Amino acid sequence: MSLGPNLLLALLEGTLAAFVLAVTALGLSLVFGVMRVVNVAHGEFFMLGAVLAWAFSQVIPGMPAAGFLLALIGSPIVVGAVAVAVDRAVLRRLGYEPEATIIATIGLLYVVQQLVLTFYGPTARPVVAPISFRVLFPWFGYSGYKLIVMAASAALLIATWFTLMRTRIGLVMRATQFDRETAQAFGIPVDRVYSMIFALGAMLACVAGVLVVPIQQAHYLMGLDPLLLSFIVVILGGLGSLRGTVVAAFVIGLSDGIISVFFSPTLAKILATLLVALVLVFKPTGLFGARGR
Amino acid sequence: MTDAKTNVNRSPRGNITRRGVVKALAAAAGAAAATGVMPGTMRYIQAQTSAPIRIGFQLHRTGIGATYGRWYERVTSAAVKLINQGGGIGGRELQIVTEDDGTDPKRGAEVVAKFATQHKVDFVFGTLFSHVVVGSSPAAAEHKMPYFVVSEGYHVASGKMNRYVFQPGITDVRAQVSSMAPWVTKNLGKKVTMIFPDYAFGHDHRDYFSAALAKQGGSIAALIPIPATETSFTKHFARIPADTEVLYHVMVGPGVLTFVKEMGEHFGSRRPQVFGFIDSLEGVDIASPGLEFLDGSYFWEAMPRYAGKDQTAFDKFYRQAVGVNDSGAAVSDPKDVSTYSHMFGCWETLYVIKAAVEKSGYKSPTAQDKKALVEAVESMTDFAESNQHPQGAKKFVGRIHQAFGHQNISKVNGKRLDVVHRTSIQDGMYEPEADYTKMPL
């Protein structure tokens, strides 16, 4: 293929990676921004989404679209409930202490992973895409479902932004992020907001997992990659900055797509990590991060 | 955690197999019960020592090799059962001690050490993934533990392992690809693009297929290595040059179905000739949605997944014992597709170990007995096609601890695979580059 089609393919793959990454990393960023909790188990919520999607798709056999729709609604509810339980049972008891919560979420990562390994097994299982068609370009074909994933992720990002910026509940969340004690003094139930934020963050990762599973298959180790990339994105964009997270997801996703196609995937990873190192050295708050308070 | 996963096989009386396999083997179990009128220990009474032979099974039960691991375990259980029904090894019962290595090289080395120091097994066997073999081999040498791998990689035959590492049950990649290359250039094309995993196993494909291709007057259009942790492959297909005549693919791990599906999305019906190693589809149903484009493409198979018109009586026997149907899936669950082109290696390796123990007069894990065993394996030369070697006859080259067998090329015909060419053993043989027998024991 010549340069043009190559670039088109790189852009398509890069955009897909960027959108999925943006949704996943947004959850991580939100949790850190409001709660100051670095959730190392974030990738496991992504994996849970994929695994639950497989489970829900088995409920309605023979009708992939209906099963997938069920998964799209059911999985986030289950994962959200798990997240609330974790918040109440673990994080709250630790007083949201940054060091303690990092250790606790590392533990959570292993607990979730081993539970899935025990009950779901070590096999990678496919989930049939709800809609499958091939978009034919003159030079190559492209999965139509991937375009749908992009659209769905974009919608999700907009919905999250709208919730945070234009609704009362979003206002409460932002107030808690800005100053926890003052928010509490104004009668905001900070504990409940924290639970909600933790659940929302987990649900975002979960939905990304559900969307991705028809492309990737559900496997108990699939949470590691999104976790590492989310960390890269969140550090790059500035911990807690939503705009920064989305911008950084696109920087990482697109550069990964383009560098992989024209050079090598390993080089893409090297450059992404180098970029993070440079940002940490020269602008530790990230590209869009505010100074710590 | 790992301790909980340890179990000790006491075939045939113990409750060792998964439920599905037990069901599949119901007939065999019935026969065992019928012949089991003698108390269990009576059957082994003729041996000088009636203590069981214990083999440590280094199993990929979890991690990226789990699909292979599941089937390696089933085949091993079936073989152990048969061996014990036939009187065990040298009149001694065969016991399997299983440890999960998580398909991880570091854990693999620990498992080998644990077998030697804690379980005190006689031998270790069963490792597949090349990085785990390479990571575990030094531990085998350190503990002077005969280590029988079922891995395919060229690492054993290359001489880079040590005197204790053997691969007597499966042909290595170098031999496989060397025997394929003439057929590929003659029937499919001479300009080849290769897609392969970017680590030892894939590098063996890259190096030895390229060399064999050049010998046939063919050339490489592009080499596309895929990083081990890749989950999406579409972006790599962009690097396939337009003038590629043959696309050669080999992939392993949990992403294989994604890999083949995305290849289909990329090419559709306008594909070059496609020649793949069945590794890209091991454990995957060829009738899965999205794989239609593979119709008319070709695969290497060590052992034909679909029972065809040339099926041997040995394959029939083996299939039934393991519980695999004529389409290569579990009898108990037709959706559970086997890793048919690799797992026979466990079966054949156990029979090689049995022969070596009986030949060498091995009794206990002493330095002297182990030396005799290693030398006994090294002195082997031929394995005849039989119920013990259902994949076919093999030559064994003791100097490089490696077996050489027949290979098959199969064509995808309407959602099944039919063998179109079977190589001779000679096609894959090469001049040994090492000599383990000169290494000290």
Structural overview:
The complex is a heterodimer of chains A (293) and B (441). With 293 residues, chain A is mainly alpha-helical. Chain A has a domain at 20-221. Chain A is built from 11 helices and 2 strands; from the N terminus they run ααααββααααααα. Chain A has helices spanning 3-35, 42-59, 64-91, 98-119, 144-166, 168-178, 180-185, 190-216, 224-237, 242-262, 265-282; strands at residues 134-136, 141-143. In chain A, strands 1-2 form a two-stranded antiparallel sheet. In chain A, α2 (42-59) packs across α8 (190-216) and α9 (224-237) packs across α10. Chain A is globular and about 60 Å long. Chain A starts with a helix and ends in an 11-residue tail after the last helix. The mean pLDDT of chain A is 91. Chain B is α/β, with parallel strands linked by helices. Chain B has 14 helices and 16 strands. Chain B has helices at 2-5, 19-24, 26-35, 66-85, 105-119, 130-142, 173-187, 200-215, 234-237, 256-267, 313-322, 340-360, 367-378, 425-428; strands at 7-8, 53-59, 94-100, 123-125, 147-148, 165-171, 191-197, 219-226, 246-249, 273-277, 298-301, 382-383, 394-397, 402-405, 408-412, 417-422. In chain B, the strands form 2 sheets. Chain B has a 9-stranded mixed beta sheet with strand order 1-3-2-4-5-6-14-13-12, with helices on both faces. In chain B, strands 8-7-9-10-11-15-16 form a 7-stranded mixed beta sheet, with helices on one face. In chain B, α6 (130-142) links the parallel β4 (123-125) and β5 (147-148). The radius of gyration of chain B is 21 Å and the shape is globular. Mean pLDDT of chain B is 89; it is low at 1-14 and 24-42. Classes of the chains: A mainly alpha (293), B alpha/beta (441). Chain A binds chain B through residues 1, 5-6, 9-10, 13, 16-17, 114, 117, 121-124, 126, 128, 132, 134, 136, 140-143, 215-217, 219-222, 225, 257, 260-261, 264-266, 269, and chain B through 1, 61-64, 66-67, 69-70, 198, 225-227, 229-232, 234-240, 242, 254-255, 257-258, 262, 265-268, 283, 288-290.
